[in-house]
Amino acid sequence: MPASLEPALRAWIEKTAALNPDEAQHVMVRLDLVLPEADWDEYERQLRKCQREQVRVDARWEAEQARRTESTRAGVAPVVPLPPDPYVLFLAWGTEREVLWDVVDDLLFLLCTEPPAPEKSPFATWFTGSFRRTKRMVEPLNRLLVESRSVYEVTPDQRGLQRRMEAGLSEALKVAANAAESSGYLAARQYLERARDKLMAVHTDPSGAYVDLIRAVEAVACPMFLPLDPLPTLGKVRNHLRDADAKYEYVLTDKSGKPGNTGGVVAMLTDLWEGHSDRHAGGPREVPVSQEAAEAALTIATALVTLLSSSAVRPRIDAPAQRQVAR
Questions:
Q1: What's the pLDDT tens digit per position in 94-119?
Q2: Cβ-Cβ contacts under 8 Å for 173 (sequence gap 6 or more)
Q3: What phi and psi values does residue 251 have, to the nearest 5 degrees?
Q4: How many CB atoms lie within 10 A of CB 152?
Q5: Would 232 disulfide with which of 134, 137, 171, 226, CB 3.0-4.6 Å?
Q6: Residue 99, Cα to own-chain centre: how many angstroms?
Q7: What would the pLDDT profile of 293-326 be if each residue is shown by its tens digit?
């Protein structure tokens, strides 16, 4: 976290948590934070001071009311503001720097609502209190994250933080997801998006993301190449394409201009399949999946889903004209 961002982010946390102080205590429970006794003692001291001041204000107000005529009496007695909630102050100013991202992530999840559906009227949305509150929270936070060149950004649903994805990869993933869904492989889109969320979260889950990436490719490849197999896997798809290469063609042509073979696709399938290093536990080859490995797998899986969804690999069919020439 840049040093210049820290005080501004703490101020954002205080302002945001104060919108619902009751939730601040629940944030501390989830993050395993304990309010120091000194902070609670100071809050109680300030509270007693406010209560004494309220007694004096009430007495002065009642005396003034007694001197006024009925038409000039004030309708509402003044109220002495209570001291700031101790949990709110501790979340903002008492936590370690390393915890701040978790606090921000949790507050967004608790207090923000998802953007309205595109078909919903913008006028109706504007009059929704939850939408306006979310806008007041998210806009200044987004500005802080952009100006500080933070590695984090607010998630598209506005209910948390995620690591900022490189623009080219983000666009490629969107293309792959759209291609899968338009071709009837909705599950592939869902697995890709789940993998992205696990890779880009505040606390990443590269192993879980890798599993979802394999499932994303399987969701397209298994029904396409192994429709009759009751237990299809990505490994079986790889073996099938490798062993039955003569039956398939690839849209990229070879040097002669003819449709290419599936060797490149098989290589990508092999990298993805064999790179899942923690698939089986208890053996000497079990190696935790690193963040870098999972990000590389995301690139490969995104390309595979796009290629397979667009029929870049298809059964090889010789045109009649070609067969006549062969005779």
A1: 999 999 999 999 999 999 887 766 55
A2: 165, 192, 196, 298, 302
A3: -65, -30
A4: 19
A5: 226
A6: 18
A7: 999 999 999 999 999 999 999 988 763 343 433 3
